[in-house]
Amino acid sequence: MNYNKKTVRDADVDGKKVLLRCDFNVPLSKETGEITSDKRIRAAIPTIQYLLNHHAAVIACSHLGKPKGERKESLSLKPVAKRLGELLRREVLFAADTIGPDAKAKAAALQPGQILLLENLRFDIREEKNGADFAQELASMADVYVSDAFGTVHRAHASTAGVASYLPAYAGLLVEKEISIMGRALEDPKRPFVAILGGAKVSDKIGVINNLLGKADTILIGGGMAYTFIKAQGYGIGTSLLEEDRLEYARDMLVKAKEKNVRLLLPVDTLVGDAFREDCARKTVDIREIPDGWMGMDIGPRSIERYCAQIAEAGTVVWNGPMGVFEFPPFAEGTKAVAKAMAECSAVTIVGGGDSAAAVEQFGYADRMTHISTGGGASLEFLEGKELPGVACLLDA
Ligand code: AMP
Q: Do residues 374 and 151 touch, judged by C-beta distance below 8 A?
């Protein structure tokens, strides 16, 4: 996969209409419908500002939630247009449809330096089906396409990939940052390259482990997925998370890591609880001595020390998935320690989106990481080495 793509800086946008795919899939309050975090809107500002400063007329578009091809007022992007206007301190026009008469009329009248936001793309079923007619209609409103929705580049939808068949396609500043930092980490990392993988399930991370076994020097395993590996080595794991059908895979990986000379480390101790509850009884035990009826819910202090020592010496660290049930404070120490070690080390540090990004923010280390990906699913597929349709469709540099 080529991560070296033309960016908005290579495009001639002066006086042009630019179709800008953003990720405005913001969280909404269930009670009031209000936007509860505008982080994704803020993430799009640099590219929007760049385009407006370079005299482009910006036609922004995004999906929001899962309306599944039906118009749902609760998933209208109208509140996003309002918030975007406040952040940009300028008027953001809003079209009540995506490729309908209102969008077409407003796009046609749009002047350089103005911005228009189209209604939720997923109100039309053809968006997710990557319908060629829908993509063509979208493209017909603009001269240039810019992709800045990293959160959806792993999807081949009309607005993330289809439109690139009809318009010259460039990466926005956010997508550029995501693919250049993560692309470099995978293709030409500063070594030693340490990957930290956690989270609930081995099955979710199989693609990542497979890909990283050919690239990383060290892989540190934590979280619920660790216990399937421990069981695969023949030890009891009490009531810890287990994926029976992945035991064989775990065994294979341990062998493969040896063959490839990759240091694959598993926890040597664990903090167990007697129930999946924040206030359960807990104790630290050797990983080979998890008692019946107890559940491994965090990595233990000796594992923390071992993992942090690897991080301290790393040239590149990529992290995806918490080390334990960090939502329960008594079981957050492992995840917190990894975040702190990453914040304090001199390596290039990359945090995959989703739970690990949330943890890093919760513990206050966000601004000390080289990069926190804005896409959970997208960054996972990136680490799996999969081709991302929303990146592949952009012009090569
Ligand atoms: P993922 O979405 O796969 O990254 O998994 C994140 C979730 O894994 C979080 O909600 C954690 O609470 C959970 N998790 C991490 N470690 C464990 C564990 N030892 N047992 C159960 N769940 C865990």
A: yes
Distance CA 237, CA 348 (A): 35
Nearest CA to ligand 1 atom 3: 199
As beta bridge partners, residue 218 has 194, 263
Contact 167, 144 (CB under 8 A): yes
Which of 197, 221, 355 gets mutated to test ligand 1 (max ligand atoms within 8 A of its CB)?
Answer: 355
The pLDDT value recorded for residue 353 is 74
- Choose among 192, 181, 203, 325: nearest CA to 265: 192
Single out the residue of 323, 370, 377, 376 nearest to residue 345, CA to CA. Answer: 370
Q: What is the pLDDT of residues 122-148, one digit of tens each?
A: 999 999 999 999 999 999 999 999 999
Give one word for 42, left, alpha or beta, with left for phi > 0 and alpha for psi -120 to 50. Answer: alpha
**Annotation says 191 is catalytic:** no
Q: ∠12-42-2 over CA atoms, to 5°?
A: 50
Query: Cα 130 vs. chain centroid, distance in angstroms?
Result: 22
Ligand 1 interacting residues, C-beta cut-off 6 A: 199-201, 204, 223-224, 241, 296-297, 321-322, 324-325, 327, 354-355
CA of 245 to the centre of ligand 1 (A): 18
Question: What's the whole-number average pLDDT of the chain?
Answer: 96
